[in-house]
Amino acid sequence: MREVPLGAPQSGQSRVRTLATGVSRGTESLIFKNLVPESEWHRMRAPNQDGEFPYPVKYGYANVGVIEDGPPEYVGCKVFGLFPHQTHYNAPLSGLHILPDGLPAERAVLAANMETALNALWDGLPSLGDHICVVGGGVVGLLTAYLAARIPATRVTLIDVNEARRGVAVKLGFEFSLPQDAPDNQDLVFHTSACSAGLETALKAAGNGASVVEMSWYGAHTVSVPLGADFHSRRLVLKSSQVGTIPASRQERWNYTRRLGVALSLLIDPELDVLISHRIPFEEAPSRLPDIYMGRLDALAPVLIYS
């Protein structure tokens, strides 16, 4: 924990007091373990990161706060900003997104995860009535399944090795399966588990000619992909999806501001509070986050709470 001076807001800026920040467990764990390859140091920079990879860096991109100083008509507004874990920051209004009415700060920190899920559905192109499975029951996988399950007549199954994810899946409106019981002949598969075994499960679940959308980012890890056996004869498609880029078919009409606004609107459902597994006081972050980063604690969406 470090104290640094924060100057007065410059012209056009507002001062924001943080209410909550979301811990991006997958990405921040890779950074914590120094598993970001040097080739990705530039692409992996957070929008408002301080420092340079590999360390030390001030990282994070899911900050919800309240405007305390700025244009009078915006003072008191709750906003989402792509800022790290810190108590205050200054930002132009163009870099802040006012929360929709009824969206609480703690749930709003899931906006970046919801953007990733939304982007994946754009890449996967699900259709009405599809049988869809998502391999990997982290927050991004659960949100991807949540969105897919709201397409009329779809049948969506979450596949994970952790039986505890069953209750979350049921509450969010889709089915659950352990890998050994995974359905096959799926019309579309999303993979989010960030492990080779999960990717193998995803390929096995896909029906002939179906697509597997790879959403995992492995950092510096080498991944074994089973592209032998019947991969070619079944004409499977392995497609990448990455939230840093809007799909080419939408780039002429969509920008990141529009996408983030949609992601925030999709978080209105109070059932999504089931994803917030830990509420950690900000001052306890140095002692409690390492257990989450190292996988010693089962966590979905840890949220840092600022007094």
TrEMBL record:
Entry keywords, A to Z: Metal-binding, Oxidoreductase, Zinc
Co-factor(s): Zn(2+)
Xref: SUPFAM superfamilies: GroES-like, NAD(P)-binding Rossmann-fold domains
Superkingdom of origin organism: Bacteria
Record flagged with keyword Oxidoreductase: yes
InterPro entries: GroES-like_sf, NAD(P)-bd_dom_sf
Zinc in keyword set: yes
Family (UniProt): Belongs to the zinc-containing alcohol dehydrogenase family.
Protein name: Zinc-binding alcohol dehydrogenase
